[in-house]
Amino acid sequence: MTSAVSFENVSRHFGAVRAVDAVDLDIRPGEFFAMLGPSGSGKTTCLRLIAGFEQPTGGSISIFGERAEGVPPYRRNVNTVFQDYALFPHLNVLDNVAYGLMVKGVSRAERGRQAEEALKLVQLPGYGARKPGQLSGGQRQRVALARALVNKPRVLLLDEPLGALDLKLRENMQEELKLLQRALGITFVFVTHDQGEALSMADRVAVFNDGRIMQVGAPQDIYERPQSRFVADFVGSSNVLPPEFVARHGGARRWASLRPEKIRLGEANGAGVSGTVRARSFLGATNRVTVEAEGVRLHAVVPAGLPLPDDGAETRLSWSPADLHLMEEA
Amino acid sequence: MTSAVSFENVSRHFGAVRAVDAVDLDIRPGEFFAMLGPSGSGKTTCLRLIAGFEQPTGGSISIFGERAEGVPPYRRNVNTVFQDYALFPHLNVLDNVAYGLMVKGVSRAERGRQAEEALKLVQLPGYGARKPGQLSGGQRQRVALARALVNKPRVLLLDEPLGALDLKLRENMQEELKLLQRALGITFVFVTHDQGEALSMADRVAVFNDGRIMQVGAPQDIYERPQSRFVADFVGSSNVLPPEFVARHGGARRWASLRPEKIRLGEANGAGVSGTVRARSFLGATNRVTVEAEGVRLHAVVPAGLPLPDDGAETRLSWSPADLHLMEEA
Amino acid sequence: MSASAVIPAHAPAILPSRGGIAGALSDTFWRRPKVLLFLMLLPPLLWLGIVYLGSLFALLLQSFFSIDEFSGLINRQFTLKTYGDLFQAANLDIIIRTVVMAASVTLASAVVAFPIAYYAARFARGKWKALFYLGIMLPLWSSYLVKIYAWKLILAKEGILTWFLDKLHLGWLLDAWLSLPYVGGNSLSVSFTGTFIVFVYVWLPYMILPIQAALERVPGNLVEASSDLGASPGQTFRNVLFPLALPGIVAGSIFTFSLTLGDYIIPQIIGTSRLFIGQAVYAQQGTAGNIPLAAAFTVVPVVIMGFYLWGAKRMGAFDAL
Amino acid sequence: QEMLKELGKGEGQVNIVAWPGYIERGESDKAYDWVTSFEKQTGCKVNVKTAATSDEMVALMNEGGFDLVTASGDASLRLVAGKRVQPINTDLIPSWKTVDERLQNAPWFTVDKVHYGVPYQWGPNVLMYNTNVFKEAPKSWNIVFEPMDFPDGKPNKGRIQAYDGPIHIADASNYLMAHKPELGIKDPYELNEDQYKAALDLLRVQRTLVGRYWHDAMIQVDDFKNEGVVASGSWPFQVNLLKSEKQPIASTIPEEGATGWADTTMMHVEAAHPNCAYMWLEHSLEPKLQGDLAAWFGSNPAVPAACKGNELLGEEGCKTNGFEDFDKIKFWRTPVSKCASQSECVPYYRWVSDYIAVIGGR
Amino acid sequence: MRSDRNQSAPLGVKLAAAAGLLFLHLPILLIFVYAFTTEEKSYQWPPPGFTLDWLSVTWNRPDVWTALGLSVKVAVVSTTIALVLGTLCAAAVSGTKFFGREVVSLLVILPIALPGIITGIALRSAFNLADIPFSFWTIILGHATFCVVVVYNNAVARFRRTSGSLVEASMDLGADGFQTFRHVILPNIGTALLAGGMLAFALSFDEVIVTTFTAGQQQTLPIWMLEELVRPRQRPVTNVVAMVVVLVTFLPILAAYYLTREGDQVAGSGK
Ligand SMILES: Nc1ncnc2c1ncn2[C@@H]1O[C@H](COP(=O)(O)OP(=O)(O)OP(=O)(O)O)[C@@H](O)[C@H]1O
Ligand SMILES: Nc1ncnc2c1ncn2[C@@H]1O[C@H](COP(=O)(O)OP(=O)(O)OP(=O)(O)O)[C@@H](O)[C@H]1O
Ligand SMILES: NCCCCNCCCN
Ligand SMILES: [Mg+2]
Ligand SMILES: [Mg+2]
């Protein structure tokens, strides 16, 4: 099967800045693919390479098997939902949504009909006459989505589409987006720097750092079997343990990750590693306890309701050896 | 003990808009107080009333027992960390931090010394010569903090100081802020619309809605014993159950909240309420399952590792009656 | 969400070129943005770079010619003689007089303009904002010449100001001012004071607009932050507002300074008959026919404005223009 | 360019650079109109551009676009030397023979016996004064050159004006001729370095007395009305205008005598409307026009016949305007270094820059 | 910046602003007053009487109409040229970074930053050298040169505010370069161009200094006024003309204000 998007050794350098550096990537048709990474790691640049706003300085890109270099954005059957939505401020919602059809020469009546339908799809029927300025953030986000979907793109690119929304709205939109993608079967490529969002929404996740892909895989893979310190640190709030520490407490001399919910807190004189409680925070369903042990700061997550040691108290940490995930990185 | 800040029946109306409406509030000296609420609920206005940028249209405000009405901001020993930092773009970092001392007439040498110290406190020693434009978001945030702290205010107001930072940085800053507050013993009043942030950082939280305070209390109180549907819905991702539903399944005819981690999923023919699985998301340590039961959408959170029902499958939900929190709101 | 409505057709992922000249051109421009840039820059650069700068250089070139003293014809041989003439005491007087006037006018315009711009930018809202806008734009639209003549009536010895001050029994005040050296004279309309007032008046809107624009860009919360940190309104003004409005002031001063440097109509109608650079240029090229000296005179504002623009650019004043 | 040999049809218009008040079409005063009839007769529409100084006239002619100019003596030879004007075929101007003999071959427009124009008017630069201040006509130009108190007891400082043109240096020389004979000035337009310096010194004193120099005739009229100016060298034109507005103004030629002007209508080398121009030249010599203009401007006609029987001028008009004083008036000329009365004189270009310096306070 | 919330200006600022506005407007009021004076030769204060005659006198003066006609034509053509050149320049400068970008922006500002008399005699001596006779187009050459900058400034400011992602969004949705210009760029910078165009028109319409050098014997309205004001005859006619110009331009100025303001709001709300 041809990939929806395929990068072969693609680079995009801006002078000395290697925004994207020798990336290989295959996005499968119909999948919900997330690009995750810290700020400046090259996620947006990757997306812009697919959309055609940037040209690779090296390597080659194909979209559904066709070479994309030199093809301007308006000739790629790929659409983008921009982070700031980029709605046309001078057009009303309906004309915004119908824009792609208009420039293709679809008749006014027909494009009105299709745009109305797309608005229905994003649950904004009847909003056509408003100007973008009269919409809330979440509504704008949906209009941007409808505007892209009405063109029936083969790949939909979304650059942190939920970044500007507040938490509550964001959770709702996450669910809606995922349902929509399932229903339409369009390949979604989704950029985010929020690991929770990437894990909960995507079929597969690529973790970026410094213009390179550190790891690609299903959310569980990434979360439970990080291959490098960076991934372990960035994805989830895993404890990353240095080789010496790991060597002392039952593992090989390798970097390892240990998920906070796998750590048990016990009496100061019980088994395990002893440390001092540095901070406690209430997370709702759980409490997070920060413990300093042998010079390493460790987070343990304890379900609410269980007793918590006091700030400054001595405590012991223990975990089952199976939960200590040794990483490939030495 | 006099309150650090006390509102007695304070209102601030803008024409017909009741930004703050008959609010009573007591913030204790030395506490870390959070104001939580959706956009437009009046949090910023409250803060501006304390800082003196707004004057109440009704009621009275005292700061450490002294009446504050008519006192201009520059005569209140209260400082603010603005949401967008409001650093002076024409001054370098040191002069920004030393600004409050300069206008008080502290000598150049002395204020340089104190500013340098404040920068050390926020872990930016040696950054004094840079212009704000040359700093990253997190660094700016710290400069804004240092600029406020150098004046040794009795109350420090923070308006969503972490809103513009990305997740990772935000978590670090949350921890730092809390440690700093503990160390300095200054009263912090902290505005946020992020419930996680409020719960994990504050000693007490006030939940705002529509210019009014819906509930004030310790994070656990707010999270576990919401008094109203609004609070239950806004704080944590609780399931809010309508009276009929509650009446049918063991409670009184009242609105109730049920935390997702308290719901157990069982075989389709077991005990409890039966429903259809609508969505599943991977949250890392847990999975969230969305189930539609008797017309109500419920979220259940299941620890990772436990088996998950398939999308569209029938399942049964159960919980222990003690976890069903009946609210005061009818 | 219902998904049945939009079902992706299996269109090709890469569409063919739209064809036609527009399609081909569009593709070309996209692939070679430098070509598009070149085409966009070509007309303005031809106009400004060739016609305007060309003329300017041709003029400057003439300053290296000299005039034949007998026939008054231009001698097209390279010489610095004309610059020798330019630096005669009388001409230096003209230059200094003009520069001092331009500087004073600029300073005064800034002082008068600031409160207007400040109010318009930070306090006026709704109707008042519109009113201020009109109040600044209308003078800009009323005839420059007729305004100058209106001032002549105001400033004349038997003019409106004298009449008004006499009514208030304040005539002595005017007389006292007029008896001062340099700025005084027989009446305001034949004094440097009069020239100065009219210059300030006529160029004022050019100063208000950029200051207002600069002030409007100062985030309101900087003022609040300053106040929050204990600065009184006066301290806030000195330490925050003024420094941030400075690029606007500098942008405005480019106009007021340059317009004063070159104007020859105002000092001729209101003034002491002592020449300003603009008048000297006008007289040398028009009445005396001494184009080389006129050209040499124009070098003075060019050099001054060159330095001025360089400084302004460094202050970021161009953004406030 | 060849002189025109015979007159053709009019081109429909003629463009003239003139002194203010020289070409009137009844707009200022209905009685004074010598354009309308000409336009009717010839079909040549007359377009006038006024100039305030001789230098301006030269500049306008250099610029081009004009057919005729009413040049004074200090401009006419410059125009000839600069090849801006063409010889006139007097055969095409029937009234040429009626021109005053004193003017027919005057050196300021005749070069090598070739005529470069047709005389128009001449007159003195008079001393204009306010009769409320001077109950009697002032006797000397000293009232505009020396600091003093006027008869009303107030100083002259700020209440006098002087002409804003380098040619005013000649007025100062003329004053010095009478008051400092030891300088040996023979001709106010021919000054050696010492004489020239003395003239400038005198003008520097004058600078301290003058508020603003007058440049435009009309502005001077305003200044006498609104600016408290009470005495100044001027042209009869302003005097007449102010009198017609019932202002307390009169004029005199003081004992030192006066400079003056003799103007010639000259034709541009590239005149686009030569036929209309010739028609105007002929028209300009009509006794009626000459008399009316003399009355209007306070000048003297170039055609003696005009002195008689002109309603507006009156029988005594020519005498009043000084028709008999032709020899006493020192007519404007362009100062040149090769001068007649001494070995070397200060040329005009220095007059220009030095006069600017004097006005500037140097 | 939003205005200082709910604060009113300090009294000193209010007074100074009011005094400044008064200073700006009293002389203009005077122009109006003298459009109705009964005395025509020189303006006396106070005016001896008032009359409406000058309105009809002005109406019937053909020279006013010719000068007005020329001024309007010059302003329209110069503004049009300035709109094209200024927009092109602004688009080039704000769209891309290229070598010499600073030079271009300096070059555009130069004609307004250098005194008009320099522009004037430079062009004039160039005309002389090149043997170009004075014509309508020589006036245009001068005016368009200094009008470019106001259009440029307005357009650059708007380009800066208009999110670059709009252009990308348009191309993303299938619009080629021309369609994007027509459907997205033009509508978004339209009001800024209008405001710039109005300012350019005003600048051209009232320009004397450059025109003096490039007009030859043609009379634009300001040149006509200069001539007219020196003549103590029917001086109120110039005042009537000046007054009518102010009154006639009142509405367009106001319209431009509201148009550009709304434009800004919409442009800013794209976020
Ligand atoms: N046009 C450009 N010119 C120069 N450098 C660029 C350009 N675009 C991006 N970069 C640089 O390339 C790197 C990657 O940028 P990119 O926008 O792809 O990051 P990102 O992962 O999307 O970050 P964020 O989460 O902050 O959006 C950054 O260092 C950025 O500064
Ligand atoms: N100066 C003002 N004039 C009119 N209305 C105002 C003003 N300031 C605030 N409001 C209104 O008061 C209400 C409360 O605003 P406030 O800024 O306090 O909300 P908030 O809780 O801080 O919201 P957010 O989370 O969006 O910052 C809003 O409806 C707002 O529009
Ligand atoms: N509003 C008329 C002022 C005249 C200014 N002209 C500016 C031209 C710039 N060279
Ligand atoms: Mg990005
Ligand atoms: Mg807020």
TrEMBL record, chains A, B:
Residues 5-235 form the ABC transporter domain. Keywords: ATP-binding, Nucleotide-binding, Transport. PANTHER family: SPERMIDINE/PUTRESCINE IMPORT ATP-BINDING PROTEIN POTA (PTHR42781), SPERMIDINE_PUTRESCINE IMPORT ATP-BINDING PROTEIN POTA (PTHR42781:SF4). Transmembrane segments: none annotated. The keyword Transport applies. The keyword Chloroplast does not apply. One of its GO terms (cellular component) is ATP-binding cassette (ABC) transporter complex. It holds the Pfam family TOBE_2. InterPro entries: AAA+_ATPase, ABC_SmlMolc_Importer, ABC_transporter-like_ATP-bd, ABC_transporter-like_CS, Mo/tungstate-bd_C_term_dom, P-loop_NTPase, Transp-assoc_OB_typ2. GO terms for molecular function: ATP binding; ATP hydrolysis activity; transmembrane transporter activity. It comes from the Bacteria. SUPFAM superfamilies: MOP-like, P-loop containing nucleoside triphosphate hydrolases. GO terms for biological process: putrescine transport. It comes from Pseudaminobacter soli (ex Li et al. 2025). Belongs to the ABC transporter superfamily. This is Polyamine ABC transporter ATP-binding protein.
Automatic annotation (TrEMBL), chain C:
One of its GO terms (cellular component) is plasma membrane. Gene3D superfamilies: MetI-like. It is found in: Cell membrane. Keywords: Cell membrane, Membrane, Transmembrane, Transmembrane helix, Transport. Residues 95-309 form the ABC transmembrane type-1 domain. Its main location: membrane. One of its GO terms (biological process) is transmembrane transport. The chain crosses the membrane at residues 35-61, 94-119, 131-151, 188-209, 240-266, 291-311. It is a multi-pass membrane protein. PANTHER family: INNER MEMBRANE ABC TRANSPORTER PERMEASE PROTEIN YDCU-RELATED, INNER MEMBRANE ABC TRANSPORTER PERMEASE PROTEIN YDCU-RELATED-RELATED. Belongs to the binding-protein-dependent transport system permease family. CysTW subfamily. This is Spermidine/putrescine ABC transporter permease. It comes from Pseudaminobacter soli (ex Li et al. 2025).
Automatic annotation (TrEMBL), chain E:
It comes from the Bacteria. InterPro entries: Bact_Polyamine_Transport, MetI-like, MetI-like_sf. Its main location: membrane. Keywords: Cell membrane, Membrane, Transmembrane, Transmembrane helix, Transport. SUPFAM superfamilies: MetI-like. It is found in: Cell membrane. GO terms for cellular component: plasma membrane. Residues 68-256 form the ABC transmembrane type-1 domain. One of its GO terms (biological process) is transmembrane transport. Coiled coil: none annotated. The chain crosses the membrane at residues 12-36, 64-91, 103-122, 134-152, 240-259. The keyword Transmembrane helix applies. It is a multi-pass membrane protein. Belongs to the binding-protein-dependent transport system permease family. CysTW subfamily. This is Spermidine/putrescine ABC transporter permease. It comes from Pseudaminobacter soli (ex Li et al. 2025).
